[in-house]
Design a protein that fits this description.
By secondary structure, the protein is α/β, with parallel strands linked by helices. The strands form three sheets. A five-stranded parallel sheet has the order 2-3-4-1-5, sandwiched between helices. Strands 10-11-12-14-13 form a five-stranded mixed sheet. Helix 3 links the parallel strand 2 and strand 3. It is globular, with a radius of gyration of 23 Å.
Length: about 450
């Protein structure tokens, strides 16, 4: 299956100043597969170890003599090593902090060797490491479930991907093609982007099998919880895990999760799920200027779940007759999808962050689903499932922040328009002159490119 991150791996390979690479992401997002595919395409051979499957190999990292480490592994695995032609892959490296520490010496002693590491619970280890972290001697790539465009490629719809990727406003968008892509988007909403699920669907087209696979992955996540503290702490994790899966993109109020549990315990559970990359925080920002982090509040946030397919599994949506499936959760799924796509389209070497804005005042509540920063410009994003819906919050945000362009994702054809709108603000009426970029949901990944076209 074609994954966009492969190009970044190729770029890393060809850089003279590269560091050992750590691939970070949740379980089952395809880290091992993409490294093995990368090795097949770009190297003569692969020296690969999995420190969970072969825990005895951890003893090899008792010191930082990296040449000895390689020699012993070469003998044990009966593999030749040729610097520049061999990819050395350490999978599940989180189970051996000494192996993480050794990466510094691979960089310093054998810089010509290509080294990649991966681990599903790696962020927990990095957060708690007592050994010295090889700061400045490693680099990171972040990996996510398959995007909608990767899903289309997996089901052999390359032409549709090209059409989406090449669209500009020099010509109108085909209504027939729009309808076809929208149909596939509905399928993606309920199948999701976990590689093993997409592979099953692309090969067998059996929706019942998809549900079984999704449930198996969720169960494997729960098994991981056994590694997190006491039985009571594991119960808190289960509670938060279920709540976030059933209620993505809803502002987190700990009393809504479990009013009988102290907020401190629930907050800790959210943090652990975030470190596992099962949930991603969407943090509140005042969005007064860039960078958005300067004006954000880490204690006020929503969460996006790892994958939209799991959201349906948590909400017991039966995956049958997808062409006609309408649920009460369309708006929530649209917002989950948008967040998932925004995350996956951040440059993978950048630690991802998502933001939203809200104002809670008497008779004047307003909320912007996402705040999108492109270069040094800020754009509010509203997400709608259908083709209609008011944009009062977006207009109010533009007025208050003295901005002139908003973005809407819905299920209509792409458009750009300029408007003059009356605004009711406390004590007076005013007028807003503004522009709206409206894109179909399946074009979330194209937002940055289209903004740069200069049409706005």
């Amino acid at each position: 299956m074609k994954r966009g991150i492969l190009q970044y791996l190729k770029d890393w390979k060809n850089r003279n100043n590269r560091n050992p690479l750590i691939l970070r992401g949740a379980r089952q997002v395809g880290k091992t597969y993409i490294v093995e595919e990368f090795a097949r395409l770009e190297f003569k051979n692969l020296l690969s170890i999995n420190l969970e499957e072969k825990p005895e190999f951890k003893k090899i990292f008792f010191d930082n003599d990296v040449k000895r480490i390689l020699t012993e592994l070469s003998i044990l695995l009966n593999e030749d090593i040729s610097y520049g032609n061999t990819l050395f892959f350490i999978d599940e490296i989180q189970s051996c902090p000494e192996a993480i520490q050794s990466l510094r010496y691979f960089k310093e002693k054998i810089p010509e060797l290509h080294v990649i590491c991966a681990g599903s619970l790696l962020d927990h280890t990095l957060n708690e490491m007592k050994l010295s972290m090889p700061v400045g001697r490693v680099e990171f790539l972040y990996m996510y479930p398959m995007t909608f465009k990767e899903f289309l490629l997996a089901i052999k719809q390359e032409k549709l991907v090209s059409y989406i990727s090449e669209f500009d406003f020099s010509s109108s968008f085909s209504e027939v093609i729009h309808k076809q892509i929208s149909q596939y988007l509905r399928f993606y909403f309920f199948i999701g982007g976990m590689p093993v699920v997409v592979k099953s669907y692309s090969e067998d087209n059996m929706l019942s099998e998809i549900q079984r696979i999704l449930q198996n992955i969720l169960t494997s996540f729960k098994y991981d919880f056994a590694k997190y503290g006491t039985r009571r702490q594991q119960e808190y994790l289960q509670t938060v895990f279920k709540y976030c899966g059933q209620n993505p993109c809803r502002k987190i109020k700990y009393s809504n999760i479990d009013r009988d549990t102290r907020s401190t315990f629930l907050k800790e559970s959210v943090s652990k799920l975030e470190l596992s990359r099962i949930v991603h925080k969407v943090v509140h920002t005042n969005a007064n200027k860039v960078p958005l982090t300067t004006h954000s509040r880490d204690d006020v946030y929503k969460t996006v779940f790892l994958d939209i397919g799991f959201v349906n599994q948590f909400n017991h949506i039966e995956l049958t007759a997808l062409e006609n499936l309408i649920t009460a959760n369309e708006g929530m799924l649209a917002e989950q999808f948008t967040g998932q796509e925004l995350l996956a389209n951040i440059q993978p070497h950048i630690s991802p962050q998502l933001f939203y804005w809200s104002r809670e005042e008497k008779n004047s509540n307003a909320e912007i689903d996402y705040i999108f920063q492109h270069k040094n410009n800020i754009y509010p994003i509203e997400v709608k499932w259908g083709k209609t819906g008011t944009l009062k919050s977006l207009q109010l945000f533009l007025y208050e922040k003295k901005l002139d362009t908003g973005i809407r994702f819905n299920m209509d054809l792409p458009s750009i328009g300029s408007f003059k709108t009356g605004i009711n603000v406390p004590g007076k009426k005013s007028q807003l002159t503004w522009k709206l970029l409206s894109l179909p949901l399946y074009m979330v990944s194209e937002t940055g490119r289209i903004v740069e076209l200069g049409e706005l």
